[in-house]
Design goal:
Oligomer: single chain
Number of strands: 8
CATH architecture: Alpha-Beta Barrel
CATH class: Alpha Beta
Shape: globular
Strand order of the largest sheet: 6-5-4-3-2-1-8-7
CATH superfamily: Dihydropteroate synthase-like
Strand content: 5-15%
Length: 248
């Protein structure tokens, strides 16, 4: 599994260890990730959780500019995690190489950015237009995802970008407004059925569980057993250790 390590330039990110708000701390974070099992870096400047303040794109880019340039110096795949086309374009111009589309690519402007750079696209499932407010999925969640990806890939075809898409079930977002016990059941169901998303013949990308609880550990094992092509993690040592324990 190709593993992206998380660097957050957003000060209200939930994982405090991932936060880097200047070039020096970003370099240190990048070195840690790459020295402990990561293959690439995922950088975001706007939190997508309920407690994150939404900021103008100019402010998001101010957070990111020197950090993008710093992390690009590692010469590994660098994804920009954003739902703002202006930020995404600027990040790609300054050294990012992959789009981690926090809006689920739900506007043509983001598709045009991807087309202009021919950049790989992590395409996450969202059941609503706002990445911070995922609507409840009351039906079979995998079927809802299949329907969503079917429609989004039609748009990808219009831009000639299907071959660059990487499918993400969106569990890093959601359902954030559910109690944890309900989220756990939802995520367990999704992770146990990732093979159903392979109907599109596209690689899978999972935001890996990072909290230290028995349930999160169980979810991590379920995901890794599914052998997705890509993962996104905060603590690469643990992820690689579990992979070895599972003999993957």
């Amino acid at each position: 599994m190709f593993l992206y390590g998380v660097v957050n330039a957003s000060p209200d990110s939930l994982n405090l260890d991932s936060i880097a708000t200047d070039a020096t701390s970003a370099r240190q974070r990048g070195e840690y990730l790459l020295n402990h099992g990561c293959d690439g870096i995922d950088l975001g400047g706007q939190g997508s959780t309920d407690n994150a303040s939404v900021i103008p794109w100019q402010e998001e880019w101010d957070r990111l500019k020197e950090i993008v340039e710093t992390l690009a110096q590692f010469n590994v795949p660098l994804s920009i995690d954003s739902w703002k086309p202006q930020v995404t374009r600027l990040a790609l111009e300054h050294g990012a190489t992959v789009i981690n589309a926090a809006d689920g690519m739900q506007n043509d402007e983001m598709w045009q950015v991807a087309a202009d750079f021919q950049a790989p696209i992590v395409l996450p499932f969202l059941s609503g237009p706002n990445p911070r407010e995922m609507e409840l999925v009351k039906a079979d969640p995998i079927q809802v995802m299949l329907d969503f990806f079917t429609e989004q890939l039609k748009v990808a075809d219009r831009f000639g970008l299907r071959h660059l898409c990487i499918l993400d079930p969106g569990t890093g977002f959601a359902p954030s407004n559910w109690p944890w016990e309900e989220r756990y059941i939802y995520q367990k169901q999704v992770y146990s059925n990732l093979d159903r998303l392979r109907i599109f013949n596209l690689p899978l990308y999972i935001a890996l569980p990072w909290k230290e609880t028995a349930q999160h550990d169980e979810l991590l094992e379920i995901v890794l057993r599914q052998q997705p092509e890509y993962g996104r993690g905060h603590y690469p040592e643990k992820i690689r250790r579990v992979e070895r324990q599972l003999d993957l």
